[in-house]
């Protein structure tokens, strides 16, 4: 399970107070869910981390020091994640940890890292990870609350005030449903119909018929993940509903268009990241070079399309490299301080500016409002 | 009115999928009293193998045939490698073996295929059929038709054919069945092949509607099992009615009450039925054995 990259050196010696020696190596720990039910998150994350570490070592490392990555696969199990976090800190003596593909595993790692005062960059969605702010914990993915805000902002622009929601009952759908309901009032949006479906359901026409027959509904929002949103979209067209349909960032991938079918998915809007529409970004877009570099390298090496999730790992690693470069030291305390001082760091998910009150550092501009036109994504201005 | 019709269409679509899965449970149960929890994996394999064969360039009907035959062969393998060696074991142990097989098949599928969600084109296009303001996908008719055909086939098999009766006899008393000259090993092999084939057929027909991925099997198995229990385990008529009933209850609850309670209502109905009729709607009490 344990993979080490770069040349192995007697790292234990370094940790004995010799970390400032010029030839010393920086040790970064990672625990992601490369297998198991969350493998769709952890698998691209692990591949991304391995690729980036190799890349940076080939270029001579950070401030002349090579990076060693200690990577564990927690299989999505929070208990394993806790064990690996402890092992990373006590046995492998890493200076920082990236990982926690799911909210559950992130919460486990977080408590261990905070106790040991080791900086931890989480790759999971929940806002609870960085709110309230914990001194050593940071995270890269935007939250589902931000996705709701982005969608409502777009609805506001189109003059939509009353909507119907149909949400999956899985963790992702339920969490986003709650966040959207919580934040809708701020945008003057009323949720007139609130339906749910089980992620394994084969047909949602009953729920959609109910929403269609609800007085005043001007648009429909579907927070969900996996096959559910594809089936909702198909049923939506089957019923001939003409209202705008919004999906969530949970299905922001080319696979979604393919699954739901090009005809059914036409006109659907959702908030996605720059990574998904790398080719469409304006030449002067600050994210363009970063996104293109990552996309090209990843797709060349792994022969599969990049995913938003791999992008989270890319950004976590970029934050760490940036912090290490500025700190000029691999002391956990110095890395933490540098992470918190991150300013305008361009990642694939967005542009990060951290502060003592904000350990996520993204604003709504991290999301791009996308619309399917002619069977492919396009940017909504 | 069109609203009610739409809910009924939704219920029939979902119910037909449940019924097809439920029908797959009946043969193995009739031959051995074992509830085969790997049945859902056969459904998953039907969809996944078809998709991969279709991607590889086979025409869809041929891809579907390959999937059904391959899954039937896997059912036979499962019987030879896992069930037959444990023949003397109590039924509960055999059921646990099928749960293990289900976990194994799912894990293997994740490695052999991939972790993505897939779908292939509906057999008769995607243009919904309109009936009085309500709509239904042509593929739903394929699933409903498939469920009916499998039902009639099974009913004829168990009541009109010698080999079908041999299956029932094996279930009743294996030793007595052997004494009258029934090759019980062959009966078991056959029932696994048929069950797996019917499961794969369900996957082939349902995938354009439900989509498929390596992990969809458990969901299918649970709903199909619920349908089979409601109707009466082992009775094809029960499986058919039970599956459709659960689908209709879910859709009507979602439409008229709230989608939050649709599964709860379905399971309350199942509990009530089983409380007053422990054999299910069509299960006969005569299956009790000494």
From TrEMBL, chain A:
Annotated signal sequence is: 1-24
Q: Known Pfam families for this protein?
A: Peripla_BP_6
Q: Which intervals hold domain Leucine-binding protein? A: 25-361
Lineage top rank: taxon: Bacteria
CDD domains found in the cross-reference section? PBP1_ABC_RPA1789-like
Which UniProt keywords are given for this protein, alphabetically ordered?
A: Amino-acid transport, Signal, Transport
Tagged with keyword Cytoplasm: no
Keyword check for Signal: yes
User: Which protein family is it in?
Assistant: Belongs to the leucine-binding protein family.
Query: What is the protein's given name?
Result: ABC transporter substrate-binding protein
TrEMBL record, chain B:
Q: Which UniProt keywords apply?
A: Amino-acid transport, Cell membrane, Membrane, Transmembrane, Transmembrane helix, Transport
Asked if the keyword Transport belongs to this entry, the reply reads: yes
Database matches in InterPro entries: ABC_transp_permease, BCAA_transport_permease
> Which locations, inside or outside the cell, does it occupy?
Cell membrane
Its transmembrane ranges are 7-31, 51-76, 88-109, 140-158, 179-205, 211-231, 238-258, 264-282
Ligase as a keyword?
no
- Pfam families for the chain: BPD_transp_2
Q: How does it sit in the membrane?
A: Multi-pass membrane protein
Q: What is its main location?
A: membrane
What protein family is recorded? Belongs to the binding-protein-dependent transport system permease family. LivHM subfamily.
Q: What is this protein called?
A: Branched-chain amino acid ABC transporter permease
This protein's species is Chelativorans intermedius
Q: What is the lineage of its organism?
A: Bacteria, Pseudomonadati, Pseudomonadota, Alphaproteobacteria, Hyphomicrobiales
